[in-house]
Amino acid sequence: MELKPLDPKGKLYLIPTRLGDDVPLEVLPISIKKVLEQVNHYIVENEKPARRFIKKVSPSKSQRSLVIHTVNKYTDTSEIPSYLTPCLNGESIGLLSDAGCPGIADPGAEVVKIAHEKGIPVTPLVGPSSILLAMMSSGMNGQNFTFNGYLPIDKNERKSTIKHLEKISLERNQSQIFIETPYRNDKMFADLTSMLHPNTRLCIACDITLTTEFIATKTIEEWKKEEIDLHKRPTIYIIQRE
């Protein structure tokens, strides 16, 4: 006779999504399609993009069967534990970001934290991470790097942070990764080329996995001779001073 666990829990699947409008199964493994077809409960960053993604990957799945909760900057975090109740009742849940891997530069990290606290199995699925893809293609130190998220908006704070990251990069031989809101990209590029040492290397990785993908690593002195348009294009920045 097979003995079943007394308290079987569903899993929290961490489901990566596309970084843009790629054909889903050109950048995502078939395992994601299989999970989407099995799971009806979802925690997502925004409902409309999540529904479009699920429909794109699994067109035959009934949208009416989906139970969706959103977790973003407007969410009352005290509500999140209740979103995981299906797992405690034996049903699995999918966690989706708007783009890329949930939990990485993404509010879904709080969901994963609570899942661990409740003893819910967490299962990450394979998919694209713009941060890691940029690091892979930068030619910089892939054994020692830090992701710093968004830099300050205030001009003086931003200048201080950029110079500080450059100093750490030199002292620790450490690549420094950060991002910016896409509509402020051109201002970020101007700040970097004006504030960093001429010999500091800067990687700009833009529209990763898309047909418009642009990835290049040059010194600041070399970038000053370039004209590029990054406006409203998702971009990862990496700097390293040697």
Q: In words, what does this structure look like?
A:
With about 240 residues, the chain is an alpha/beta fold. It has 2 domains: about 10-125, Cobalt-precorrin-4 Transmethylase, domain 1 (3-Layer(aba) Sandwich), CATH 3.40.1010; about 130-240, Tetrapyrrole methylase, C-terminal domain (Methyltransferase, Cobalt-precorrin-4 Transmethylase, Domain 2). It is built from 10 helices and 10 strands. The protein has helices at about 25, 30-40, 45-55, 80-85, 85-90, 110-115, 130-140, 155-170, 185-195, 220-225, and strands spanning about 10-15, 40-45, 65-70, 95, 120-125, 145-150, 175-180, 200-205, 215-220, 235-240. Strands 3-2-4-1-5 form a 5-stranded parallel sheet, with helices on both faces. It has a 5-stranded mixed sheet with strand order 6-7-10-8-9. The mean pLDDT is about 95.
Question: What is the strand and helix layout of this fold?
Answer:
Layout: E1 12-15, H1 24-27, H2 30-38, E2 41-44, H3 47-57, E3 67-70, H4 80-83, H5 85-88, E4 93-96, H6 109-117, E5 122-124, H7 130-138, E6 145-150, H8 155-172, E7 175-179, H9 185-195, E8 201-206, E9 214-219, H10 220-223, E10 235-240
Parallel strand pairs: 1-4, 1-5, 2-3, 2-4, 6-7
Antiparallel strand pairs: 7-10, 8-9, 8-10
